[in-house]
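Narrative of accomplishments. A recurring question from our advisory board has been how the design workflow behaves on a single, concrete structure rather than in aggregate. To address it, we present the structure tokens for one chain from the evaluation set, followed by the sequence designed for it. No filtering or post-editing was applied between the two.
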């Protein structure tokens, strides 16, 4: 504990570690070609602690000046110390620098995961997102980048 994670954009060199984080969470292999396309085409963020990738956030183009936050994960052992919030902060800054004005994302109890589900809506709300619509299992969240934060 105590160590501060280094946060920066993802590159192709992060993909194998990213894939391992994804697989541990989801119980299935990551589609690394898809992740590679996302990090080549849209802002991303990765967090390293003692040299190891412990968290990431990826986006993909959604519409003009809008991206979708496509995947976000912090390793279970590294959660609860601000890494997820730092990843979003870096991502939002990178998006603004690219002229992006809004982020949309989906969080759901319907995803197959290898760990118990915990609702991520409070995490996103603390980072300035608001719920646009909810179904039984899924929340669609949006965040404007035109204001503070
Ligand atoms: C959601 C997640 C990215 C947050 O990362 P983090 O580094 O723990 O976040 P921070 O330390 O910046 O923020 C902590 C807050 O996140 C929320 N949070 C913590 N663990 C969480 C979890 N497993 N699931 C959902 N939200 C969580 C809580 O509101 C927490 O606040 P608290 O400490 O006051 O309870 C991380 O818990 C995670 O990877 N969860 C599993 C995958 C996931 O839900 N991804 C996003 C939706 S698809």
């Amino acid at each position: 504990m105590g160590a501060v994670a280094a946060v920066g954009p993802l590159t192709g060199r992060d993909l194998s570690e990213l894939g391992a984080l994804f697989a541990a969470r989801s119980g299935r292999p990551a589609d690394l070609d898809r992740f590679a396309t996302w990090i080549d085409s849209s802002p991303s963020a990765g967090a390293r602690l003692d040299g190891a990738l412990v968290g990431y956030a990826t986006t993909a183009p959604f519409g003009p000046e809008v991206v979708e936050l496509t995947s976000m994960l912090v390793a279970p052992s590294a959660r609860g110390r601000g890494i997820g919030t730092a990843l979003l902060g870096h991502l939002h800054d990178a998006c603004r620098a690219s002229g992006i004005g809004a982020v949309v994302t989906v969080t759901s109890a319907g995803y197959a995961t290898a760990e118990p589900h915990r609702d991520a809506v409070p995490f996103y709300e603390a980072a300035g997102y608001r719920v646009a619509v909810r179904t039984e299992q899924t929340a669609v969240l949006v965040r404007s980048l035109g204001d503070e934060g």
